[in-house]
Amino acid sequence: MRPTRVMLDARMCDGRHDGVSRYVIHLMRELRKSDAITPVALCAERVPAEIGDQGVELCVTGFSRAHRPAHRRLWWEQTRLASVIRRAGVDLYHATWNTGVPLRCPVPAVLTVHDLIPLADLVEYFPSRLHRWGYRASVHVSIRASDHIVTVSDYVRNDCIRRLRIAASRVTTVHNGVEPPPSRATDPGVDRENYVLYVGGAEKRKNVAAMFDGLERLWHRGGNAPDLWLTGTLEQQCPAARARYESLKHKGQVRFLGAPDDAELDRLLSSARALLMLSTAEGFGLPVLEALAHGCPAVVSDRTSLPEVVGGAGLVVDPDDPQAVAQAIDRVITDRALRANLIDRGLKRAASFSWTETAKRTTDVYRVVLAPFSVRDSRLICSGRRPRRPGNVATGVPAGRSACET
User: Fold this and answer.
1) Judging by beta carbons within 10 Å of its beta carbon (0-12, 13-18, 19+), is residue 106 exposed, middle or buried?
2) Looking at the chain, which residues constitute the CATH 3.40.50.2000 domain(s)?
3) Residue ranges of the chain with per-residue pLDDT less than 70
4) Which of 27, 35, 110, 305 pairs as cysteine with 153 (C-beta 3.0–4.6 A)?
5) Domain 4-177+354-382 grouped into CATH 3.40.50.2000
6) What distance separates the 2 farthest-apart alpha carbons in the chain?
7) Which residues contact 184 (CB under 8 A, 6 or more apart)?
8) Distance CA 323, CA 307 (A)
9) What would the pLDDT profile of 26-68 be if each residue is shown by its tens digit?
10) Helix, strand or coil for residue 25?
11) Residue 15 pLDDT
């Protein structure tokens, strides 16, 4: 029996190193190891090295940065993408970028939703009504055209079911994985520099201002208070974070890191006293998992997906309470017994997530999506003609339950 040819949307990987890109790169890498799956990478005009170097089959298209705005992306996906999929001769299409399923998709389609955060505040993310219309339309068209939806956390799964009124049987949680680091510093006092680290974007929801608020209390107290090192630049920060930074009395204890590569991130996570993530909204929070895998304790907000990811392996705080944030950071740094316990629990927690397991559970979804199609339908798929859609596809997971238990 020939392998199932699966096209994965890798258009977003061009010049991006965020959680979605990491998800696609690692998923494709793991699927390539399977004898049952032949991954095909749907790429933009410029093929990123992370995809090209994997040796997978490439499907290079005319999609470019000019198509990135929501309305132009919607137009390209609804007018061009179906024919691209048909010509590639694949059995299944996997849209990995929250949207991206053509309404007349010629093969069964799986959609990964990482979050619905922009829908909650479209004005924050999109500058014009046209952009907002394009994004909203893209989400609803893709949901309608998909045979099944994968979410990266139970939080996002429940949000999809509630906000988009999707049948629970159409949505399966498959958590992200984490790649084991080259080395782990498990001793709470060895090779750790006196800084706490933030890794992530600069949008308002990342709540960098709350990090400044919490740490300012420690800096004002003096002593051996840790510095804050964070990715990005001051100019990239949202207005609230920039304004809070300008009001700090201890600006010298803040260091902006720009865009470190993976090797540098590995070193930073291995050397930090703690990871700080006080986001008000996250779909998953991959830096938290990566920190735990490096033996770096995490202090996270009590919002959305972060408590689900950290489990009992980190400190969870109210990001609106600067005193609680300051106390949590201080405890992680000064309480050696607590720190050692968090490192141990964090390493065990991270070990329960792997990209191999992510790929395995995603393959299970592919298998169930394709199962209702007969042999005759399979021939139709291969010939580029869409068979009759069988309707909602259940994964065998009871409603309200996750397909990924950790």
Assistant:
1) buried
2) 4-177+354-382, 195-351
3) 15-17, 183-191, 374-406
4) 305
5) yes
6) 73
7) 270, 293, 294, 295, 347
8) 19
9) 999 999 999 999 999 999 988 888 888 888 999 999 999 899 9
10) helix
11) 60
Helices (H), 192-297: 208-221, 239-246, 262-271, 286-293
* Angle at 339 (CA atoms; ends 333, 342), nearest 5 degrees: 135
Would you state the structure tokens that stand for residue 45, as one six-digit string?
């005009």
d(CA 201, CA 284): 13
Residue 227 to residues 14, 216, 251, 342, 366: CA-CA distances in angstroms? 33, 10, 10, 21, 46
H or E element in which residue 171 lies: strand 171-173
Confidence at residue 139, expressed as pLDDT on a 0 to 100 scale: 97
pLDDT of residue 405: 31
Q: Are 56 and 8 in contact (CB under 8 A)?
A: no
Amino acid at 304: T
Both tokens of residue 43? 């790429």
Q: Order of strands, edge to edge, in the sheet holding 254-256?
A: 254-256, 227-230, 195-198, 274-277, 298-301, 315-317
Q: What pLDDT score was predicted for residue 394?
A: 38
* CATH code of the domain occupying 195-351: 3.40.50.2000
**Token pair of 346, please?**
């964090």
Quick one: 357 exposed, middle or buried, by C-beta within 10 A (0-12, 13-18, 19+)?
middle
Phi/psi at 65 (nearest 5 deg)?
Answer: -60, -25
Q: Which amino acid belongs to residue 146?
A: S
E-only strand ranges, 247-343:
254-256, 274-277, 298-301, 315-317
Structure token pair of residue 89: 């001769």
Cβ atoms of 353 and 178 within 8 Å: the answer is yes
Q: Which residues of 207-222 are buried (b: 16+ CB within 10 A; e: fewer)?
A: bbbbbbbbbbbbbeee
Per-residue model confidence (pLDDT) at position 401? 31
Could you give the angle at which helices 19-31 and 355-370 cross, rounded to 10 degrees? 70
Task: Give the separation between CA 354 and CA 174, rounded to whole angstroms.
Answer: 11
Q: What is the pTM of this model?
A: 0.89
Read off the amino acid at residue 175.
H
pLDDT confidence of residue 155: 98
